[in-house]
Amino acid sequence: MSAQPTFEEAQRELESIVQRLEAGQVPLDDAIALWERGEELYKLCRTRLDAAEGKIEELAKRVEAQKP
After folding, report:
1. How far apart are CA 46 and CA 54, in angstroms?
2. pTM higher than 0.85, yes or no?
């Protein structure tokens, strides 16, 4: 089992997939596989963004709580 890509790696791969699909030059079976991979990458990116947002909100609350 390979390690999951970083957010940036997943984003770059997702962008590449979108470009390939938009070009319309991918055979149908490959397009379906690319679409499925794109969905996986999107979910991974969304999960990481949501987690980062939660951490930022938590840190902001800590800062507000420490204000005099």
Report:
1. 12
2. no
